[in-house]
Amino acid sequence: MKRIRALLAKELLLETRQQYSFYGLLLYIGTTLFVLFMAIDQPEAAVWNGLFWVNLLFICINAVAKSFLQESRGRMLYFYTINNATEFLLSKLLFNALLMILMSGISLLLFTFLLGNPMKQAWPFTGLVLLGGISLSLVFSFLAAIAAKAQQNAAIMALLGFPVIIPQLVLLMRLSSATFSPLLSVSGSAVGLLIALDALIVLMAVILFPFLWKD
Amino acid sequence: MKKNWWKILSAVLLVYTIVAGLLGPVPALPLLQETIRNLYFHVCMWFAMMILFTVSVVYAIKYLRSLDLKHDIYARQFAVTAMLLGVLGYATGAIWASYTWADPNKPLLNSFSTIARDPKLIGAAIALLVYSAYLILRDAIADIDKRARLSAVYNIFAYAILFPAIWILPRILPSLHPGNDGNPALDVKNDISASMRVVFYPAVIGWTLLGVWIATLKVRLQLITDKKLIS
Questions:
Q1: What ipTM was reported for this prediction?
Q2: Highest mean pLDDT among A65-69, A114-118, A194-198
Q3: What is the mean pLDDT of chain A?
Q4: For chain B, what is the mean pLDDT?
Q5: Which residues of chain B approach chain A closer than 8 Å at the C-beta?
Q6: What are the chain A neighbours of B163 within 8 Å (beta carbons)?
Q7: Whole-number Å distance between alpha carbons of B141 and B144
Q8: Which burial class, exposed, middle or buried, applies to A49 when counting CB atoms under 10 A from its CB (0-12, 13-18, 19+)?
Q9: Three-state DSSP state, B106
């Protein structure tokens, strides 16, 4: 636990030292939204919902890609000697989840600001967005680890991730479309399913990461 | 000859499937009518696909436990064969849908976008996409051992997420597909009449065995090609 915290602190420190990537992400969100803002004004709820989730997906790829890709070979070797795989992986997952929570919050704000607010139930939607951000970040973190080991760029990570993420994304879009009507409510069991899927992803990542880790 | 009994069984079962499937008695249901015979081909091929993907994952797990490259070759070839069956299942399903689901007043292609939204089609499409990504990942890595290890990891990870999702999706999305209303699987006992079940089960076994046969041929070829690598 202590070591996870230390690794997490190291990630945060790196993030504050190398702020270009954080601001790069903000700029990415900002420009994407500005393009959308220019292309359409005030889309209807279904379009808004679809755009939002697709936008979140692309933000996630950009945010998470560097988590493993930034580590050089030598640095990975160093981590290998001082940590065990589970702690290293969990710290990465945790950090990416935090980053995505922040990014989904920001993009939600900008979306309502620029493209109008079709939400009838704002809080359930916000909750779903945060949950969705975490789900996306978990899947893509693990795939980033695979892509990094394959010595490939972020493109192959997106390629590996898209088919795997579709079911969750469909589930999230379905659930969140309920919040655009004042009468429908978000089904609790479906949210439970999403959380269970997240738990499954973390479990699989913890089991499989040691095999990626050693060379 | 002793080892080949299942190949003969496969051929016999498939001949039986085709003959009994096209000539045997079927219930005359509204809308479906004689197209119901496609059940022996379309559904059984997708059953076989699922079984072969599962075999592929089992070999991926075996590879990670033993680091024996043979298992990696098995995992890859079973995945490829399953994809072949998946594409065939798509083709047979498309023919079936064009007679039952498509709007007869519109050109066939216009109905496609509505039909392709069906959750089971999405599930099958995702399975094919995942394994296409698997093959691309394999080709992207030059080092043989690393390729085997990373692709085995991806294979297991994707399978573990994919299959729960395929079970969940139909419960949430609306569907025209049979086996609906909360039960994502085909309820073999109730949905298929007794006269059809005597063809259905052998057909599933027959198509699966045919898939295994194709896969083992490819595996043997690959084993000879890579003889020097596998000690």
A1: 0.86
A2: A194-198
A3: 85
A4: 80
A5: 64, 122-123, 126, 129-130, 132-133, 136-137, 140-141, 146, 149-150, 152-154, 156-158, 160-162, 164-166, 168-169, 172-173
A6: none
A7: 8
A8: buried
A9: coil
Rg, chain A, Cα only: 18
- On the question of pLDDT at B148 being above 80, the answer is yes
Tokens of B166: 């395929």
What is the spatial distance between Cα A126 and Cα B96, in angstroms, rounded to a whole number?
42
Show Cβ contacts of residue B24 under 8 Å, excluding neighbours closer than 6 positions: B195, B196, B199
Q: Comparing A91-100, A110-119, B153-162, which segment has the lowest mean pLDDT?
A: A110-119
CA-based torsion, A119, A201, A25, A13: positive or negative: positive
Q: Which residues of A touch B53 (CB under 8 A)?
A: none
- Identify the closest residue of chain A to B166 by CA–CA distance: A167
DSSP calls for B110-122: HHHHHHTTSHHHH
Query: Which is nearest to B38 in space by CA: B92, B82, B116?
Result: B92
